[in-house]
Design goal:
about 375 residues, alpha/beta, Alpha-Beta Plaits, Rossmann fold, 3 domains, seven-stranded mixed sheet, four-stranded antiparallel sheet, 15 helices, 13 strands, about 40% helix, globular, mitochondrion, endoplasmic reticulum, Similar to Protein SERAC1 acc. no. Q2TBM9, AB_hydrolase_fold
Length: about 375
């Protein structure tokens, strides 16, 4: 399997056009506007069963007419990629992969990428995006640090959301290191007026095997015999060691700043095979004690290894349903807050900013009568 991203697709092109022209399966194609403006170009993702087919499309100098004159075709998926969107979107979901991850492949099992193939059919009025960054530990030329990953994510979100969507609620879905990047990004967002809107818009985070307090596996690779033979970016591994000072500082600040943020954590319960030869290298990458945030949200075990905890082949799998239910719960709560904002603004209720901090459920409880009265007024 191989998936490519095509940006700059004309607004007149339909999903049917893509499927027919590229000879792809319709259930392995997505087509969404690059941003919320209806006249913007579109972004497509296409999964091919043959890697050679994808490679030919990337290399061709004469792309199919439906892709426009100058489409950009890549398989790196760096930055933000919109997987699903509509003009009526009320909530943003942003998925962030982890160490050695990929913005598309991390979430893919077989030819099924659940953020693209399952979630959009279950959640309406929700824009779904995936974010990619170079977390490849084998890339010795890269010097990008975790704080720089976080700043780049903030910049991408601010640019993508623009002025129109700057108050739209955001829910993050994070795997492994992606959770650390998101926590640090939210910490940094509060300190800059240009990114404060991201901090204010954050409504929930779903953590999948995030090493909040580090990983013993990172310790073993850095200080063990493997360090002598593996040409890896040890700076990233050092930052992820158990009881890392950097991780503790990020976590403490996050807990203080986002005490009321909706959080759900999932942790792996199967060992990950790190070597095809030596079984002694098999281990749980992120232990439960590190993957869960004490006193913050529900914690769920998943009978999968570190790589498989974020990959689902079917929307009928129990593990997928468990993750989906937490995302759906957060989306529903965020939409209530959006609706309440509209009603309260129309009613000119006082102390609006303070009221929003209560969250959707409490807001409805306190202002239910006003809400009902407003919603019962005939539309003109």
């Amino acid at each position: 399997m191989a998936t490519i991203r095509i940006t700059g697709v004309p607004t007149t092109t339909t999903k049917h056009d893509l499927t027919k022209s590229l000879r792809a399966r319709s259930d392995c194609v997505s087509l969404s506007h690059h941003d919320s403006h209806p006249t913007s170009s579109q972004t497509a993702t296409v999964t091919f069963t043959s890697r050679s087919t994808a490679a030919r499309l990337k290399a061709t100098k004469r792309p199919p007419r439906c892709l426009g004159r100058r489409p950009s075709v890549d398989s790196d998926f760096l930055g933000l990629t919109v997987l699903s969107s509509s003009p009526d979107d009320e909530v943003d979901i942003v998925a962030v992969h982890g160490l050695n991850g990929h913005a598309f492949d991390t979430w893919t099992a077989g030819d099924r990428m659940w953020l693209r193939d399952f979630l959009p059919h279950q959640l309406t009025r929700t824009r779904i995006m995936t974010y990619g960054y170079n977390s490849n530990v084998w890339d010795k030329l890269s010097t990008t640090t975790i704080p720089e990953f976080a700043l780049a994510l903030l910049s991408a979100l601010v640019n993508k959301r623009g002025t129109k969507d700057k108050k739209r609620p955001i829910i993050f879905v994070c795997h492994s290191l992606g959770g650390i990047v998101v926590k640090l990004a939210l910490n940094l967002a509060r300190k800059d007026k240009h990114t404060a809107c991201i901090a204010a818009s954050a409504r929930g985070v779903v953590f999948l095997a995030t090493p909040h307090r580090g990983s013993d596996t990172a310790n073993n690779i850095v200080v063990g015999t493997l360090a002598k033979v593996l040409a890896v970016r040890q700076d990233l591994l050092i930052a992820l060691r158990m009881d890392s000072r950097q991780l503790n500082e990020i976590d403490n600040e996050f807990r203080t700043n986002y005490e009321n943020l909706d959080i759900a954590t999932f942790y792996e319960t199967k060992k990950t095979k790190l070597s095809r030869v030596v079984n002694s290298f098999d281990r749980v990458i992120v232990e439960r004690s590190s993957a869960t945030l004490q006193g913050k949200g529900p914690h769920f075990p998943i009978e999968r290894d570190h790589r498989g905890i974020c990959k689902f082949l079917s929307s009928h799998e129990d593990d997928y349903k468990a993750v989906y239910m937490q995302i759906a719960r957060m989306v529903k709560k965020a939409k209530v807050t959006v609706a309440a904002r509209v009603v309260l603004k129309a009613l000119h209720l006082p102390q609006l900013g303070e009221i929003f901090k209560l969250g959707g459920k409490e807001m409805v409880k306190r202002y239910g009568e006003a809400w009902t009265a407003e919603m019962s007024v005939p539309q003109r």
